[in-house]
Each structure stands twice: as structure tokens, then as C-alpha cells.
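idk why but the lab printer keeps eating my pages so im just putting this in chat instead. protein + protoporphyrin IX containing FE:
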Amino acid sequence: MLSDGRAEIVVTKPLAGRPRLFDLLKQETLQAHERIEAQPRLAALVSPGLDRDEYLRTLDCLHAFFSAIEPVIEASLRNHREHFEHYRWRRRSLPLREDMIALGGLPAICARSALPSMQTLGQLGALYVLEGATLGGRVIADNLRVQLGLSEKFGARYFHLYLHGGWAALRKDAAIIQACCDPREAATAANAMFTSLQSFLDDRDREGFRG
Ligand code: HEM
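predcted complex ->
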């Protein structure tokens, strides 16, 4: 327990070759990851019987989320650019839009769910969540290929982002980030990022895709 009464976050089992900040964030977001993996739209992406129209709707949800959060991320990265030697944000809304168009869809204009704050360097630690998502993308990309015949060139550009090295670049910068930020703030922001994406997915289903 810290002197101000808050619980201290301790990394109990460091994993070899990874920044301590990533270990901590993994540990602190395990439950959030489990919850989002079970979110029906995302769970369907790794299930047999994946339907192309449902996939298109999921892309629309993800497009709504990234269109809303990207300007916030880009502005904050500009403010903290001295801490990011290797890492560059690669826009997700562009491949998502292209994937939708390839499949005969168009992104809808939609209501916004709450976005996490990304002002401080600690809060930018939540980029761990969005780059980590590209690792899961590898599994999803395989299923999209097998079930729907999609590829990086057609309909599944977004789920091939793992090929572009964002995770590795963020990992290189993590040592500097962790030396300069409050890890508890990063953990809170990472969980808020998961929650925000989950809300975008859940809310869009409740709205019934009225657009
Ligand atoms: C059906 C959906 C998902 C599946 C099947 C999935 C699966 C996976 C897998 C297999 C890994 C480990 C990859 C590796 O170590 O090479 C992983 C890592 C990760 N995923 Fe997911 N994921 C999903 C959705 C998401 C989403 C939506 C997010 C965040 C928005 C996310 C965030 C992360 C993070 C941060 C890591 C890195 C964990 C670490 O520190 O090692 N995942 N995921």
C-alpha cells in the first residue's frame, strides 16, 4: 500500500525480453482482454461460420471508434514527440474504410461513446492496448482468409497491421516512457481504452446500425 492509501501495482512475474511497463500493463489488463475477446462481434471473428455482412458491421464499429480516437492520439503524440523515437501512429481508419469499400460497404456516421483521456505521457501508455490488438489480429487474419477468402490486399488490411511493426517500435520506446510516467496512470488509461472500445462495439449493436 502506498503512503496515500492507494494500492501499489507490482509486477509479480517479469517476462523475459519485454519492457517492464508492458509486463505491468499485461497483468493489469488481463481481465479487460478476456472481456473484449468474448465481445460477441470480436468473438465471431475467430469462430467458424463467420458471416461477411456481420464482418462488415464489425469493421464499421471499429471505424467509428478509430475515427473518434485518432485525432486525440495524434495530437497527444505531437505534444510528447520527444519520448517517441521509433514509434509512429499508423491510422486505422484508412485501412478500415478501404476494407469496407472493398466489400461493398461504406462507413456510417454514428453517435460517439466516451473516449479515454490521452493527454499525458502516462495516458499514452494506452497505446500498448491498440498496438497489442494487432497481435491478436494475426489470429483473426488467418480466420478471415480461411472463412471469407480475405487478405491484406482485399478486405482485411486492418487485420494485417501486425506486419507493419508498430508493436516492436512501441516496445523500443517503452523504456523511455516508463522512466518518465506514472505506471498506475498508464494502467488506468489502458483499461479505459479497453472499456471505450468495448462500449463502441456494444453501443453500436444497441443502436441497431441506424447510422
Ligand atoms: C477476437 C479478438 C481477439 C483475439 C482473438 C485476441 C488474441 C490475442 C492473442 C493471441 C494475443 C497474443 C499474441 C502474441 O503474443 O503473439 C493477444 C495479445 C494482445 N491483445 Fe488481443 N485479441 C483480441 C482482441 C483484442 C483487442 C480488441 C485488443 C485491444 C483493443 C487486444 C489487445 C491485446 C494486447 C494489448 C495484447 C498484448 C498482450 C501482451 O502484453 O503480450 N486484443 N491477443
